[in-house]
């Protein structure tokens, strides 16, 4: 894939469609899911007079659920997504840190 093609694909990928999902409606309530998106890319090439011509490019995307807008009875409410895995990791790190602190102070 040439750099221009890759740039076109990346431009199409990084759009509002990636951040906001299709609205879902049921029983008069509309839910619009949203994600947090991070991405980046780069590319480069060699001198044009040398053969074979060398060029390359790439990009990456990370998307995580952020929450959803809930539309009900003429009002909108933001409902954040809860990442249980991340909460568990933070709790585990906190427990280890407290345990180290307690054992360090007990050794004095």
Mean pLDDT across residues = 83
Poorly predicted regions: none
Output the radius of gyration.
Answer: 23 Å
H-E string: HHEEEEH
What's the story with the biggest beta sheet?
4 strands, antiparallel
Strand percentage lies at 35-45%
Discrete helix count: 3
Widest β-sheet, arrangement of strands: 1-2-3-4
Give me the secondary-structure category: alpha+beta
Overall description:
The protein is of the alpha+beta class. The protein contains three helices and four strands. It has helices at residues 3-13, 16-19, 84-106; strands at residues 24-26, 29-45, 55-72, 75-80. The chain has a four-stranded antiparallel sheet. A hairpin with a 2-residue loop joins β1 (24-26) and β2. The longest helix is centred in the C-terminal third of the chain and has 23 residues, at 84-106.
